[in-house]
Amino acid sequence: MTDRAQQKARLRAECLAARDRLPAQERIDKSLAIADHGLSAVEIEPGEIVSGFTPIRSEADIRPLMSGLKAKGTLLCLPVILDKTTIVFRELRTDRELIPMGFGTFGPGPDCAELDPSVMLVPLAGFDAEGQRIGYGGGYYDRAIERLHRKGFSPRLIGIAFDCQEVASVPAEPHDMRLHAVLTESGLRRFNS
Q1: pLDDT for 129-139, tens place per residue?
Q2: Burial class of residue 169 in the structure, from the number of CB atoms within 10 Å of its CB (0-12 exposed, 13-18 middle, 19+ buried)
Q3: 3.40.50.10420, 3.90.1180.10, 3.40.50.1260, 3.40.50.1240: which CATH number matches 3-190?
Q4: Is 0.90 surpassed by the pTM of this model?
């Protein structure tokens, strides 16, 4: 493991521990604030494809935000784990059940269309003021974003976190994909990208 990877692993553990320490009711309140800020600050056109996620462990619950975006006419999709290295995004439909995807996640089944999002709401463990993010260590999102770039898409990447997950500096590695913005309970912060 490289020195940067070791630093990221240490920061990941610290950020996740800080997030885990938030009381459940506080996480709910902060998640609702994230939804309110997101619905007023994130510029999304009707018909745009937005990837979200269902919360695991102590993550922010963005289902209220996704519901609000759906009401504004967006097409929603969720990540689906295909194998140990790959996620794709499938349409989130109200007439289809979500199925277990592993790691405590749920996503649309194979009967739902695979979509290429133009806006991605990205879960994370930590972030810094430069828009660098620490994921969960599997590289799924970095590879998915790179695959979208190869297909000619440049999705806007909006990290979703609580304020307590911010660190002074993320030791970025060459494969890391920088965020365009981060959305927390304090609002939307855009980064120069």
Answers
A1: 999 999 998 88
A2: exposed
A3: 3.40.50.10420
A4: yes
